[in-house]
Amino acid sequence: MRQIIGLLAASAAIATLAGCGAGRPVQSAQAAGPAGAGLSGMPPGFEAIPLAECTPPQPARPILWFDAASVAKGGRIEIRPTWVVGSHLWFDAKAGCLRDLSIEPATARFVWDEGRLYLEPDDEADVGTTFVIAGKLQDQELSGTAVQLYDPAAFPLVGTWRQDPAACGDAQAMRELMFDAAGGFSATWLPFERYKDYWGSYSYDPATGALVLEPKGGNNVPGNLGSGKAELDGDTLVLMSASVGSPDGRPPCAQPFTRR
């Protein structure tokens, strides 16, 4: 009888390993338990945190990004989960608390690199593809998970930019100027939680440097912002005749922006 039970147990173990599939991380074959649960689809090397240590500080819902997320062709985007309470309060969560992740379409993959989790599109993925991530943070389903693949040559401003307050003197530095690959931007002098001074749409011609800013709304839309020319050199952006304005009517800070 003991031999039969042993054979059945061995057969079950072989079947479990066969079901893991090629490329699935060793962690998904861990013993059952809080840390090892829900590791289907997680990348090789993923360092799972026990789910008992992943409970939010108060009732909250999980998201991956507040704003439209995009990833450059040939690049990657870090996956940084967040607990959101109400409409504006949030707490950073640890990537090791994520479970059961999947991507559609399957022309991208998850990569665990030095304690950080990334989405990395395949080389053959088409520009314009929207990747949808599904999964859980602790035991809650994720929402707000779409990521658009874009061509950085066509949208070179995508990212978050800031001016150095120390270099602006008496002028107010713009500490958060954000551009996305969907043609949207937002501007904030003094970032606080989810506050934005104003937002709208933009277009930028890399060949001529023409930057067009069209505000659509905001809490503090300046009267002295305007479209014009901008010069981009890697991660440095200089507004020549274009202007993001100033919050108090004084001349805007003329110092360069750097990409964060």
Outline the structure in words.
The chain is mainly β and 260 residues long. Helices cover 7% and strands 36% of the residues. The chain is built from one helix and 19 strands. It has one helix spanning 2-18, and strands spanning 61-63, 69-72, 77-78, 82-85, 89-92, 98-104, 108-113, 116-121, 130-137, 140-141, 146-150, 159-162, 176-179, 184-188, 198-204, 210-218, 228-233, 236-239, 257-259. A hairpin with a 3-residue loop joins strand 4 (82-85) and strand 5 (89-92). The protein is globular, with a radius of gyration of 23 Å.
Provide the descriptors you would attach to this structure in a database record.
single chain, 260 residues, mainly beta, 19 strands, 7% helix, 36% strand
Largest sheet: 8 strands, antiparallel, barrel
* Average pLDDT: 86
Query: Helicity, in percent?
Result: under 10%
Report the span from N to C terminus.
66 Å
Topology as H/E string?
A: HEEEEEEEEEEEEEEEEEEE
Shape: globular
Taken as a percent bin, the fraction of beta residues is: 35-45%
Strands of the widest sheet, in order across it, are 12-13-14-15-16-17-18-19
